[in-house]
């Protein structure tokens, strides 16, 4: 009688918990995890205290960048990357706001790009032009309190010029910092560079006709009157993606632009951020609410969301199975540095490094 009782209890328990212990589901989950690791974009780690260090993370292996002359650029700060190339900028007055371009996977030379007319500009985008078949840098200079002038550096001609419509009333800024902090991480797709600039707006630069415009976020009314901790624009599988984390809820809403022409968005995923503290501890026993605003999304590719959570680690979140797994990284100087200010995020962080063919 006892074995029958235990068997009945086992089947009842299995029925209650549903498919989570279904061998087929477990098999699918494991195979899905393996596919995620294979398909995951490379990750670039940069650490800019004292001098810049770069390394490439592939799975759980990490390769340090050994480009000749990198360590000599003591004042260089990471700006952004495009395909296999990384864009840096001098933070000192000598050379005057110069930019530097390099490939961290090679040991080739560093290309120096001096500012136009020897006047400083702020890079706000780095992209590959699909028609001209060349890399270009988009940069901005403030002309007045309400007007900004935009420039393009053409790697083919090795020269700067103004964009076709150079003056625009908006500046791409980080939505959680001062207006002077230029956002150099646009989401690039459909021949356009996209920045979230706050107050229900996305700024767009069309790289073909070189025109700017501002488009609304139609779902912003969902968060009206609510403080936020993170609002990031990314690209997921050739669609624009918007990630939102509020102050009151321990969740991340992920919106997808399903129809670019008609500007139609849907909320496709809700990521639960209330993870097991014992399994995924927070460094220095900081309160959960304090660290919630230290999230950054590195990539969102297929069904995998890669998150860097300061004081906690890097994680892979499966958007279909709603499961989380820690990505183990090599020990770094970056781990022991205190992130007390947003500015530090610009010095030490991770970004997706999408190495693709440009032709």
From TrEMBL:
InterPro entries xrefs: F-box-assoc_dom_typ3, F-box-assoc_interact_dom, SCF_F-box_component
Pfam families according to UniProt: FBA_3
Superkingdom of the organism of origin: Eukaryota
Positions of the F-box associated beta-propeller type domain: 83-338
Protein name: F-box associated beta-propeller type 3 domain-containing protein
Native source species: Handroanthus impetiginosus
Lineage: Eukaryota, Viridiplantae, Streptophyta, Embryophyta, Tracheophyta
